[in-house]
Amino acid sequence: MSSSGNVRHLSQHCVNGDVFSSHAERKSRFMKWMSSFFKGGSKSNRGSVNGGNPSPQFIGEGSMVSRAPVRSLDNRSRSEKEKEELDRAIALSLAEGLKKPNGYGWQPRNNEDLSKSHPDDFDPPYPSYAPNEYNPMGYRVCGGCHREIGYDSYLGCMGTYYHPECFRCHACGHPITEHEFSLSGNESYHKSCFKDLTHPKCEVCFQYIPTNVDGLIEYRCHPFWSQRYCPAHEHDNTARCCSCERLESVNVRYISLGDGRSLCLECMESSIIDTGDCQPLYHSIRDFYEGMNMRLDQQIPMLLVERHALNDAIVKEKNGFHHLPETRGLCLSEELTIASVLKRPRIGGNRFVGMRTRHQKLTRRCEVTAILVLYGLPRLLTGSILAHELMHGWLRLNGYRNLNPEVEEGICQVLAYMWLESEIMPGLKNMPSTSSSGSKKGGKSRADYKLGEFFMHQIYNDASPAYGGGFRAANTAVNKYGLRRTLDHIRLTGSFPV
Questions:
Q1: pTM of the prediction?
Q2: CA–CA separation, 76 vs 78, rounded Å?
């Protein structure tokens, strides 16, 4: 008979036969049975179990006792005591974990530990919960090295803590020890480093560009080279390259050409100084014209001259329109005597010395007397000037007369632009190239290509009505109709085709 709980049940004893014992005998037997029962129960708890049910005990003459398959009172008290001690140990372990830095709390190592920590709660009535990262009071992590700060000295900035040596400038990487510093977003800077990053410096004097009367930073910037400089340098006699227009900086000395012009070192590398040096370039540009079926039948003299000689010739020239404030080439149609540069001068210090000139009388044998170009300019700039002036000669020799300045100067600028394209982008538009002539050193450098791009930029963005506006109108017509059809339209109408 099965039972529930920890209550022990004893079956009624059976009496066999007609023999009855006396009261004393029954009492004595009962006491022996009780003693034997408790001894047997103790042994059965420690002995083997048959199928989970203890073997029946026989006492006396035919009396039988059976026991329900339940735990004893002693076992129950011991398991409750062990469970209580285990719960207490877990509570102590968790309390110790809270005192340690984050990441050192107790966690079960495996499933066996997990089952030991929760012997009766394999299906708990509440959902599982993973606690958030716990940082006890006084616990800080350095935002620089990401290590624990502990009880050492620290700095705080924008809710982040640092070791003093870990609070560093985002620009130079050195620790920030000053009481004042600059912030940009989440980055910290020395005040001097932040000023270097945000306050522009002049690329001529290398000082911080000053503020104007309104407290604003005002500076000048070249549209092509992006050279930034103080506005004062436009009026303090700072040298400017007559070719690329860049200002001379305090750590670089320009070369003086002796006529009020200066030349930077990059432009000086490919400069053409005397008339003899320029002859190969001049003939290559005549070949360029011939390659476009625009042959020049007349041999037009070409001379490199000084600035004052060119200005004198401009005053005496009656034809043509001149680019102000600086004219660097002239297609001459008048007879006059002019001094040309005969021998290349040498450089002494930062200026040309020993220049030799020769006076030459120019007689008119056709519509064009000569082509004059300023000496000392880089090869690509000299070539673009020659291409422009040769177009003036071609127009006059081929009967294009009385053109307005926008049309004549515009189409001449187109030829200069096309020649520059053939030099720095050979093969473009199937135009003949003269790059085989090269520079003085036999080839073009990266600086030469950059200069060529600048000269094309100058032509394209010229603000004058005749040279700039005329070029853009002529270039549009040539791109749309071609050079030959555009020239035929100019001959017939004196204007560009629309």
A1: 0.63
A2: 5
